[in-house]
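Budget justification aside, the reviewers requested a transparent look at the raw inputs and outputs of the sequence design task funded under Objective 1. We therefore reproduce one unedited record. The lines immediately below are the structure tokens for a 239-residue chain.
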């Protein structure tokens, strides 16, 4: 977890991982993202990496207060005087933030925090690729935005997520067979529910009812799929 997108860009040059931004102090009032951070922490572990200034420490303290400390590690960068190239002036405290750190410094900070590193990076977190979302009807096709919103609502995920953010988050929480089963479950729920009750105007019901871009999970993935649906139901109750 980092503060902003420039921090995320810097970190993604060092490691391949799911990176969630707090949008600065925006995390203080974003209950959906708070719930997402708690969920990621419990299922995958969370490494908190903020700037070393007062604002960064305030955000770090807030995250500590809303998450279980058993699942959270804290990574700290050193106080290095300077300013980032994109900024016209240094920060109030005159030190570099996460985005201004050299890759080796970021990597060292993560290692000191006790972050776990894999031997080889995967093409995408959890093995879910952009093409998988397209094949499942969640991106690039007619009605894909509505299908994404239905899935996010089913899983209790924040509504304001880009396709890339959704893919990373799904990859951190589910395997591909589990995702396929969840998409199928959303389709079936859409077919069973009344358009007037849950989906005003029936537009989403119509899109889900067609089911052309949804894939039925393979037999070998059914056991995992059932577990995923159970987990998703538990998380939805928790949210």
């Amino acid at each position: 977890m980092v503060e902003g997108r420039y921090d995320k860009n810097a970190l993604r040059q060092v490691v391949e991982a799911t990176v969630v931004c707090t949008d600065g102090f925006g995390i203080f009032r974003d209950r959906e993202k708070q719930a997402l951070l708690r969920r990621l922490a419990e299922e995958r572990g969370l490494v908190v990496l903020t700037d070393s200034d007062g604002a960064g420490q305030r955000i770090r303290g807030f995250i500590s207060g809303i998450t279980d400390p058993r699942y959270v590690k804290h990574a700290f960068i050193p106080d290095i005087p300077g300013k980032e190239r994109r900024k016209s002036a240094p920060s109030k405290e005159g030190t570099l933030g996460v985005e201004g750190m050299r890759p080796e410094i970021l990597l060292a900070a993560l290692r000191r925090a006790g972050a776990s590193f894999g031997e080889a990076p995967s093409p995408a977190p959890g093995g879910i690729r952009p093409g998988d979302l397209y094949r499942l009807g969640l991106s690039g096709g007619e009605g894909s935005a509505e299908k994404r919103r239905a899935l996010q609502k089913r899983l209790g995920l924040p509504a304001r997520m880009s396709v890339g953010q959704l893919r990373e988050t799904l990859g951190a929480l589910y395997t591909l067979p589990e995702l396929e089963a969840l998409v199928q479950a959303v389709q079936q729920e859409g077919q069973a529910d009344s358009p007037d009750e849950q989906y005003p105007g029936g537009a989403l019901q119509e899109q889900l009812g067609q089911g052309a871009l949804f894939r039925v999970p393979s037999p070998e993935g059914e056991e995992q799929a059932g577990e995923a649906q159970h987990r998703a139901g538990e998380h939805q109750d928790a949210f």
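The chain has two domains: 5-113, 128-238. Confidence is low (pLDDT under 50) at residues 120-125, 194-226, 235-239. Computational costs for records of this kind are itemized in the attached budget.
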